[in-house]
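Journal club prep — side note

Before the paper discussion, L.F. wants everyone to see what a predicted structure for a comparable chain looks like in token form. Sequence:
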Amino acid sequence: MIRLEKDGGLWTVTLNRPDKANALTEAMLAELADIAEAATEARVLVLTGTGKVFSAGADLEAARAGLAISPLWERLSGAIAGLPGLTIAALNGTLAGGAMGMVLACDLRIAVPGAKAFYPVMKLGFLPQPSDPARLVRLVGPSRARMILMAGRKIDTETALAWGLFDLVAEPDTLLDTARELAADTLGADPAHAANIKRLCQS
């Protein structure tokens, strides 16, 4: 249910459970964390999904069994955030719940028209992953982060773009091409040079 394709220094990770809105099981989450930890070899890591939804977050049954509060979420987002290369979330559709963590940890976020983002932790009675609120605040500011986390607002594509949660919008048939275009300079650079520039951009 997780597909990894390697093309030189470009690694593309695809969530492939479209019949369940790419909801994540414990095994899928562990596999994603393993891939992210191994991706120090990659110059660019792209995360995407199949179907109309990027990810609905935790699988409902798995969440009830404890996955919603698993340390695997933080392990995954921490591994992505720590990568020296460029990381891109290519959102083929709506992003929800715990899946927000891996996307917030990426350097860039592109989405298809109609993609929404929401993180209903207040309504569901869970805390967000530990690193997520600070990453969200850095992107959209504290008040807008509260709109998402505390007021439960579902953010549409245009709002996410205006707020800085999404960086670009691309049509579904050009989504991965757009990701590859964004990756081109980093793929062509010396990895140490790319890592140094990324370090300088971090706040």
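L.F.'s comment for the group: The chain is about 40% helix and 20% strand. Keep this in mind when we get to the figures.
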